[in-house]
Every structure is written in C-alpha cells, then in structure tokens.
Automatic annotation (TrEMBL):
Keywords: Membrane, Transmembrane, Transmembrane helix. The keyword Transmembrane applies. It comes from Amblyomma americanum. The chain crosses the membrane at residues 12-36. This is Uncharacterized protein.
Amino acid sequence: MLKINSRKCNSLVNVAVLAATTCVFHTRVVVVTIGAESNRTAVAQVQDLQKISAVVRKTIVNSRRRSDLLSERLSFI
C-alpha cells in the first residue's frame, strides 16, 4: 500500500504517475490523505484525485497489455 500525503506534494497528478507505476508492480492500492485547509482547496484536491484514479487505471491497463505482449513473445521463443 502506497500512502501519499497531499500536503507534502506540489502536484498530486505528477506524483500519481509514480504511484501508479509502483502500485502496478506491488499492491495496486493507493491511499491519498487529503489535508485541506478550506472547502475550495478540498474541491481542487478531489478533482486531482479523479485525475489520479484515471492515471492509475490507465497505467494498470497498459502494464497488463505490455506483460501480456511480453508473455506472448516469450511463448514463441
């Protein structure tokens, strides 16, 4: 499980790429702790979380495709 604290990150979306890559090869679980100071920042962070979940899903799907292609190639060797 990879835990990301939004208060320590400049851009959650940039961190999501690393998180997604890590999760694909480990637990595939991302926990994001939101430390919002106001409703306005909370809304912005929720939008970022939606982007993160999209990045994580896309990365997992792409990873599975790559691993499937790799296993197909290896089976022909």
